[in-house]
Amino acid sequence: MRRVTRLATVAIASTALALSATACGKTSDSGSDSKEASAAIAYDIGGRGDQSFNDAAYAGLAKAEKDLDIKGNDQEPNEGESDADKVQRLTGLARAGNNPVIGVGFAYAPAIKKVAPKFPKTTFGIIDDTSVTGKNIANMVFNEEQGSYLAGVAAAKATKTNKVGFIGGVEVPLIKKFEAGFAQGVKDTNPKVQVRTQYLTQPPNFDGFSKPDLGKAAAQGQLDKGADVIYHAAGLAGSGSIEAAATDGKWAIGVDSDQYNQEGLAKYKAKILTSVTKDVSDAVYNLIKSVKDGKPQSGEVRYGLDKDGVGLSDSNPEYQKMTDLIAAVEKAKADIIAGKIKVKTAP
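Predicted structure:
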């Protein structure tokens, strides 16, 4: 099995990342006129430091800075911001000459729809969304349900109580893909295992991606009802579920990045069984490189299990000792890639 440690091995640049953004002026494209190649990412809810989704995006930007000799810019979201705020942010980044400009997360779709046509020479990337399209838009998407299926297999093999939990940050279609794959993987492996599902918030409240106390409380509730493996797809809020499971001596399954190797979760790493990984880092890097090479990506760019775009990490030494679990996961992976297993994208 391929061990996913990319995020942990990317050297994070120590230089402060500068952002030049303006809220007024001409809307003509200046991306191709920049004297210094630069790229920008605008973070999703939770921002940098979430030990998950946003940090993976930053790792791709940092790698591009190092390998491609480009200047990287990044910008944090504001709490409770509107689509208008995102439009202003992306407009400022494009006017400053950044190319590409990447919105980290589906929440940027409305803003990119408005901004991209005004800067036709700038490539705009959006992660986890295909609803907004254009000649200068790259839609970087993943088969999250496939990685989650493998997590379900692992959970079904690791549980001793035949009760496992899934915690979704916000009940939106994207997170339901995680739930669907996980539940299917569990049931296909052992129909006797119960899957308890809980979402932290409902849209338009997106606190379920940013507040660890919500994840902690939800996980504790599942633990109190007998769950001994808990998988989260909740961004920064999911760190709370990992804390709760680890403190209770139960297994946690991380998401997006190999959370076993995340510095901010080091205290709980012994109980992070595995993580469902999304190669957001490479997706960001590949888009930046395509622009630098003069052949910018556009349209749907999909990352699935067949190309290690999603997967399951095996960094925890305790995981590596579970030979039956590993064999089951490897077989499921091969069957998914061969088309023998069709993973659902909705519960």
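Summary: Residues 40 and 101 are 5 Å apart (CA to CA).
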